[in-house]
Amino acid sequence: MSHNEQVLNYPIPSEAALEPPAEWARLRRQCPVARVNLPSGDQASLLTRYEDVRQVLADPRFTRLLNADDAARLSADESGGLFSSEMAQIIPDSGEEHQRWRRLVGKWFTAKRMTALRPAMTQMAEQLIDDMVKRGQPGELRAGLGFPLPVYVICDMLGVPAGDRDRFAYWSDTLLNLTRYGQAEIDAAQAEFVQYMSGHIAAKRAEPGEDLLSELIAAGGADNGGLSDLQLLATGMGLLVAGHETTANMIGKMVGMLLADRTRWERLLADPSLVRTAVEEALRFDANAGFGMPRYLREESEVGGTVLPRGTTVVCSMAAANRDASVFDGADEMDLGRSPNPHLAFGAGAHSCLGQALARTELQVVLEVLLRRLPSLELAVPAQELQRVEGLAIGGLREIPVRW
């Protein structure tokens, strides 16, 4: 085996929490389709170039379901977390069924709806920042703002009591598990989550409210062009997990990046109209996005000049693709005014992130409110001391201590 064919372990560790692994640049240059060992011991092909990642994510022949016999297992326990759980299989993966599901659910995530939610989000952010300031310095931005805000918002949209949010946080961690929890604990947590959500849906059937689940129920069952009971359940759980953990972590990482080099923060204070492009750039620049998107190839395909046999599992690293210098000028610089910015943080094609308008709105609101309320915000520890969350499918920082 030549030195070039050395199989890397994946996820590839990084020296510093906010920095990309040095290997990304080398892989994009020399080995755009690289063999990697997953936490399970199975092998997959890792894609790091922009064009390749976009091609695979947008190709309907590549499925996100990793339940085929020869698909790679992501983690040592069979569940594989969110990607190959039974829940993931209930929501239609492709074709007209998938389009119909997206249309039904997507109505709740339009830019128009987000504009309507903005004042309430702003109020929530103000309240959380007030509470953080009252608790005194140094504050912890992840627990004080990053986590509670998206949970309040998604609970509100689903008509779920926000008081239950600590349980959701734990359930969603177990669903995003790669190496952190044992199988018995995951099974127990998922059973509790299913039971909770079933009860919640039953209550909405009896007494509908002004929320997404009530509306999906009103759309009728599977026979009437609506969702089956099981699909409702999977949708509620999926949105709760997707709607809080990812954005919660991104809020922390975004603020971490902007404060790590405080000239970035100063630039936004001087020109708050940059908030919108700054959010997009934080999404592009995020070197700690987590596992990436796995795809299973049902048929032989050519990607990046390499023929991949049928049955290959590929992992698309959107974060590596987002630093591809052939697409982004000064790809390793954080340019808060960058435009256009066709980053792949939300994926591409039929499976691009359904909640991206929600995530963007939450990130913009948090940044606007922080700049206005805490202009003197700074990290309370050196940026080098920030630590990554390990063992979950998505990346985040353990804590973000701040002063103001």
TrEMBL record:
<dbReference type="InterPro" id="IPR002397">
    <property type="entry name" value="Cyt_P450_B"/>
</dbReference>
<keyword id="KW-0408">Iron</keyword>
<dbReference type="InterPro" id="IPR017972">
    <property type="entry name" value="Cyt_P450_CS"/>
</dbReference>
<dbReference type="InterPro" id="IPR001128">
    <property type="entry name" value="Cyt_P450"/>
</dbReference>
<keyword id="KW-0479">Metal-binding</keyword>
<comment type="similarity">
    <text>Belongs to the cytochrome P450 family.</text>
</comment>
<keyword id="KW-0349">Heme</keyword>
<dbReference type="Pfam" id="PF00067">
    <property type="entry name" value="p450"/>
</dbReference>
<protein>
    <submittedName>
        <fullName>Cytochrome P450</fullName>
    </submittedName>
</protein>
<dbReference type="InterPro" id="IPR036396">
    <property type="entry name" value="Cyt_P450_sf"/>
</dbReference>
<keyword id="KW-0503">Monooxygenase</keyword>
<keyword id="KW-0560">Oxidoreductase</keyword>
